[in-house]
Fold these 2 entries.
Entry 1:
Amino acid sequence: MDYSGEHLLPGLLGHFFIILSLVASLVATFSYFKAVRSATESDATSWKNLARGAFIAEVISVFSIFGILFFIISNHFFEYKYAWQHSSRTLEVKYLLSCFWEGQEGSFLLWSTWHCVLGLILIRKSRQWEAPVMTVVSFAQVCLATMIAGIYFFNWRMGSNPFVLLRNEFDLRSQIPMLNVGDNYRNYLSFIRDGNDLNPLLQNYWMVIHPPVLFLGFASTIVPFAYAISGLWTKKFADPIGIGWTRPALPWALFSAAVLGTGVMMGGAWAYESLSFGGYWAWDPVENASMVPWLVLIAGIHTLLIYKHTGRSLRSTYLFFILSFLLVLYSTFLTRSGILGDTSVHAFTDLGMNLQLFLLLYVFVWLAAIAGAKKFTDRVYVLIAAIVLLIAAKYIPVPAVAFLSLIAGLITTIVFIQKNVPSERKDEEQTSSREFWMFIGTLIFFLTALFIIIATSLPVINKIFGRKFTMGEDSVFSYNRVIIFVAIIIGILTAVTQYLRYKQTDLKFFWKKITWPTLIAIVIASLVLAFGNINYQDHGAGFLGAIWLATVCAIYSVIANAAYIWLGMKGRLKLSGGSIAHLGFGFMLVGILISSSKKEVLSWNTSGIFVPLGEGSKEKPGENLTLVKGMPTTMGNFNVIYESDSVNPRKPLWYYKLHFKSKTSTEQFTLMPNAFVNYKGNQGLMANPDAKHYWDHDIFTYITSLPDPEKNKDTSSFKSETLKTGDTAFYSNGFYVLDEVITKDNIPAGGLAPTDKVFMATIKVFSKNKTSYTSKPFLINKGGNFIPVQDTVTSENLIFQLNKVNGNSAELAVKESNSVLQYVTLKAYKFPFINLLWSGVILMVTGMIISIVRRVELNKASRQVAEEFLEEKI
Amino acid sequence: MKKIHIVLLVFIAVTIGVLISFMGTLSTYDTVQTAMRKRGKVVSIIARLDRTHPVEYDAIKNPNFLSFMAYDSLGGNMKVIYRKEKPTNLEHSERLVLKGRMNDDHFECSEILMKCPSKYKDDMNQAKKNLQENAATKPANNSTTQYQ
């Protein structure tokens, strides 16, 4: 059957490029693999050339798939399920990209696209490491291509294809009865007027930019991983003359950490600005899962630095780089398998690909183990073990078996690294050495990562052990009370460690240098504690003490690192990437500590009638405040008036205009929090906050409740009466005067033809309590049709409607009704010093970028030395 | 034994300690009946809203007081009090996860998680419903006009 209005060509092209990308990445993997294993130089070169060609074909395919899918979405081709499911015609152009990565297929595609870009750079830059590193990258591309392949093997569908058609996925005839009539099914597209739309919470500009950055962060963790695997695989474990894998891996790891860190914090910024839980971090499983790989990567960067300067910690470096990529895969599994469904607000839903997601993780865990085995026979044994365990996991339907088979792979990897990677130094490090304390810091990061990922995996643990655990009463606090101690130790370590020297430090020299920064930090920290009024009572004196201590340590970290740029580096910023990054990290710590411990609720309920809370109840007064339209209400240091509301012309997005006026100063401003009301089957409202930003704090508010129109059904009716101008009439709470009736050609809303007329009455209302109001109802004469536009005096519960105008007399209908009481219920917070956090992130990333530039330069220099050395030898 | 090994052992011990104390903060899923036996302890109850009783919430009087009846799959029912704003789609929820403490006459709830037939999770059933609605209604006939 032919269907009218369909555009099938883009989909066919898309299918073609998906298959091509699968084949091309397979060829690239195989050819790069052969290039590594070739015995002669010329063999290796020809395999490598073939592999490059295949990889470029892969790049072209992936870019084409990306372009075609975007073309389909931006043209609203709703015959494609992806476009129908994730976009709509009413969506602003800037959010079309967000639709692209709302779905799993699009975000896999994004990931794959970044791999392509990174692969192209690696082909150009990685020289003798190209073949092994690109084998790993190409293999990852094979795996990602299977995720969007949508190919059936018997009854099992591999991957989810973004180009499937709506009519093939849904039984449209049973959904839309009209399609069964006559020839309608042929024209089914004319019945599908609009798409399902983008989730309103994702209609935020951060959602345009956060996912690409985060996925570049995820994607780039493969590079240090691939270098580490290449080191194991080719048995060039160490870096004897300056051409080892550790040198190029360092700037890549820094790049990955900078981008992943930015991406994670952009997610925080999105949560802060659009999710109504009043903060940038909620220890949500999805947030945790993206932060944990970053923590491990940072640990890896530090052990790699230790290795470069002292020859120690090479094994830990292998482990951390391998783990950080595996953790990215694990978090992919967590967030996409639907297993977090009950515990997270922003996980993906189950696409029926859990087996595939598990396999992705499984394959890479065991790949590391195979690479770790030194002898060929060992590698074969490990491969057999991996296959046997996988079959066991399939036929023993106990989740614990699958889990244990992953753990077995990890342990095998660790054992092989321990056994095969040579240790250059057997002696013990000095307690006064920099590497000793750096290593302690990396251990803390690693163990913190372990704690967070275990806590986040609670749903997985429940599944494996058949338990019914759930987070306790205050899940945020159960993380914070642990992390606060991490902040204390890391704060001190980042402050002090740079003043130590590698291998051994002259302690006299150390004390001399660190005395002043320490004293300054103590003075500043005392001032902050004395006058900063950090007084967080929710969890007792012990926790407050820990917050104080952590604040002191974080300030110490800031001062000591800033000082080190001058004392240690003599102000040479190009060399101070590390200090700048640590300085930024210190600022982040200070910002996090102060902003979360000094967050204030402004909307303490002062107007409502309190329900007796019972004796000894620790219940706080409520955080929600109700504002009646037009009535000034006290909120903290402000008088707030709910002035008016307006609606987005294209969708049920309502804006509530709230005017804030300070009680102590002349300061005043307007905030417009908004909410989707009854949006596409989502009953109720989805609120977006609005904030007023100051350099040192933000005022932040969002709507929590609106009147329910069902419950406020209007029961009173209009009474009409004819008045001349100047006449007075009474209502229950006072009287009103018809001031004048005028004729106008236009109204602010517009849309009138030249022949149309508008009558406008001006009514003065005088209430008993001596306040007066003005009301202006309209009557529109639109080509002989009379359309009244009512006007309301909210605080008097009065509604006026102009029914007829005859010269200077008018028929006025009046209604007194309780249902005109319009109100919003809202929450408002004050967040102090949130900008310290954001500027800390920016500083940290800047420091990392400076380090990347410097490391690339150093690598170039050391490569030249190595090449000269090799030439001399020949 | 090297210093670093001692540090390692101490850290591992601390991590295990932290994890054990973390386990201590966890609560469990319960039914109304088992929660009655654990009065004052934090539990999570999976329940449904009892639609035969009115949901008590008046934002004008007190926007921080919500009270309703809920029952679980074993038939146990209880009065729930939640001293925060009414979750906006409470009436449309299919399932509630209520976290809180059981008191003598009511369940003092500190957190409500709703399982809704919602677009939020890209629920395909809801998507199908939207498909029907999109095809069935004219764009002009928008249900939100009642808010004007």
Entry 2:
Amino acid sequence: MLPTPFLNFNKGDKSMKKLVVLGLTVLPTFLATAAMGAETINGAGATFPNPIYQQWFGEFKMAHPDVSINYQSLGSGAGVRQLTEGTVDFGASDMVMTDDQLKAMADAKKPTPLHFPTVLGAVVLTYNIPGVTSDLNLTPEAIAGIYLGSVTKWNDPKIASANPGVSLPAKDIEVVHRSDGSGTSYIFTDYLSKVSPEWKMKVGVNASVSWPLGLGGKGNEGVTGLVKQTPDSIGYVELIYAVQQKMPYANVKNASGKFVKASFTSVTAAAAAAKEMPEDFRVSITNGMGAGVYPISSFTWLLIPSEIKDPAKKKSITDFLAWMLTTGQKDCEGLQYAQLPKAVVAKEQKQIALIK
Amino acid sequence: MATSTAAVTPGTTIASKRRFGGDEVAYLVTLIFAALILLVTLAIVWQLWLHSSPAREKFGFSFLISKLWNPVTDQFGAWPFIYGTILTSFLALLIAVPLGVGAAIFLSELARPTLSNTLTFLVELLAAVPSVIYGLLAIFTLIPLMRDYIDPGIQSVLGFLPFFSGHIYGVGYLTAGTVLAIMTFPFIISVSREALMAVPREQREAALALGATQWESTFNAVLPFAKLGIMGSVFLALARALGETMAVTMVIGNDPAIHASLFAPGYTIAAVIANEFTEATGNTYLSALVELGLVLFALTIIINGVAQLLIVLTTKKGSAKA
């Protein structure tokens, strides 16, 4: 019902025409967005679960067109930092927040975050030993020894004794680790600290540590590149990465004395075996007990503020958490992540109610 | 002075009108643009200074000379990174400058125009390749080459020197320097060639007329004339080498330690910032990384300052000769 003169342009009125066309195209989009009252939720953090998070947020938007969740995969450290500074609505991390970090937030009168495990990941040891084609068995002592520099040759008794029938070369082991700070390194050093008191004392646990020896590769692809290129080398990468790259990875001896290969089942088993799941889910599941447990496994967490003032935002976030724990979990294996065990899901569903 | 005023007086009104119309505005606008550069630089320094304060207060000057880098115990020192940055850039220039200047001389003085233009086009293409591509290529081609042939070859001849002794990993200072050389030499060729092409024809003709051979004319008459431009190209290359991040971190081995051997793994400032910034938690850790940025900034300024000084000194010498 526009009045005719409005659209009746003179030939010379091109710029005016452009402006109106622009207005007519932009306006509906703007109105549509405003009309739906679209909720935008911003999050930032871990890179390891980013592929599944992006899929989840995409699928969740299909089911709830009025909620958009933006996720920036900047790294766990950045996720915790941005959440602490209040620049995002939620964070995500491959490491739990420390007591000091939580206390600092409480002291600043900010709502402390709740930890919600989302999926599980595992770190595997991949190797390149010319002439060795069978799967390698590695004991915790051998892994710690290699990364501390006390096991230097492939035919060291600590490695050879677990691999009867495999002819290991008398070559120097070329050790590769991650050079960038990462949750993968955190999980790996957390495991080493549990199995080796010497590691705990000399090196410790962190996303970046002061490595006693070895070459640093940037990212999973950097480590993979170095291991593939360097004969007689060993490195650690995320399970997903080793599977995609079709690289061999070692069976690791778990706390129950069994050599276990990393798989969805053995990683989920590690989470289920965590005896005392603390109320706040801040738990490390590396070196777990149980016959089928792969010992270098870990949760990755969403960090959700315990108090969300905006009621619409609160509803969207709790809706998403409930969806993620049920429908969302079905996406896991397609994207090479291990699912949460049922007991953990049930416990997390109760925690959703704690968000005020 | 008197003559110029006399000449201007008749047209004063027009001149002042014009000035208000165009020149004044142009002057102001360009002044603002120029001032922006200074402002951005100052803002960067201010931010780096501000955010590095926890580390500066905790470590003081020992940050610059400490060799310790341990995020677990929150102890940080910049020396291995400073060493790695300077060493790899130096190696890069050592390889790239003779190659680049030599190629530029060929392209501008000796090659036929069609060949020169084709090669120049290719060189400019090289300069536009993203650094991560160079890094990947290096991982898959250069590292095996260095590990299996080049490094052992050098070691078999010069292995008695500490620079060429020790275990060969394939990654390390020398590999990083080589990648940087490959990345920077298009800049040297491109800018040096422009500088050489800008030398007036008369310069060459005069030398040839005096009985010089083509090479003598190039070396004695053309090169000194283009010296400033060639040096400019070298500093451009150096700036790129000092700040290069991705390609270096992919081939240097990322070991925060100091090794005499060029075959050993090392680390650079830009590489460690890129590697550790995203996952750095804790104020000291983060501010130590920011302070590294400040150190890199200072390093670039110092090196450029020295370079400028060198230019001033050598051009004076050159003009005195002429």
